[in-house]
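Running this now, will post back.
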Amino acid sequence: MKNKPLLFSLNELEKEILILKAAIDIIDSIVNYNSLDIHHFEHGSVVRFKTNIHQEYFSIYLVDFLSMPASGFGLKKSSYISLLNDVCSSPAFDKDNSIAYLIKPVTEFYNWLETEITIKQLWFPTINLKIDLKITYLEFLYIGGNVSKHNFTRLSACATKMQRILKDNNVNKETMECLLALEDYQNWFHGEGNILGHLSSTIVKYLNNIRWGIHHYLQPEFLRSYTSGKERTYSYNSPSTILNPTIKFCYWDLMNSIRRNPYIPEFEVSRHYRHHPLIVQYSYQGNSR
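Update: finished.
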């Protein structure tokens, strides 16, 4: 199969603008008071979805954040969180080490996603399986979000992923059995088990911290670029290395998002909601920054 032609030929700064704009767009779509209620207590905060529909909406957008962008932009074939990791390694807008504000939350969320956990006593009645399932947070959220997003006929890739995860847990099942088991899986993810609901406080905290990290990272660039005019008009002095007119528009949109603070202030999660009672969490074993 031939590779799809590039929509744009972009330099590194232009690619970073796309990555940061996409990350902000996704996070702002789900980390806001229209979708969430945040209750603050003495020992931390707890996030609740306003409705079950908001929870499904959250998981769908979250799986986009954990997936690769479409081909055609010349970006690396990695998830947005991995692309943000790359931005932290080679930032185009860093001034006075402002990138430090972004490195910490991106690294923390990246490492959390790669953490292996065991979800105890999962019951899959469709395939007659009870299991203490070893899985990473990334895999757990990726499958649940895709099942929320797609109908039965578009879940073959998820079924294959579930088959591989079960095999890693010493359970061999046919792909069709794994496809049928996804409904049971979703009952633990969204339904009676509602593991996502319990983890929501932690996930929202990580996403919100990344949103604030981008905000602080880009503040020096915003202050350099912003120019006020007459009658409340303003403009931005975009970098001369932005050659593509579409990316210039994206730059303006990105700077506009820095004009205001993120929707939700930074918060710490209540210690009672940092872990699900069915989950045994192991420390991250990968290579941290």
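The radius of gyration is 21 Å. More later if anyone needs it.
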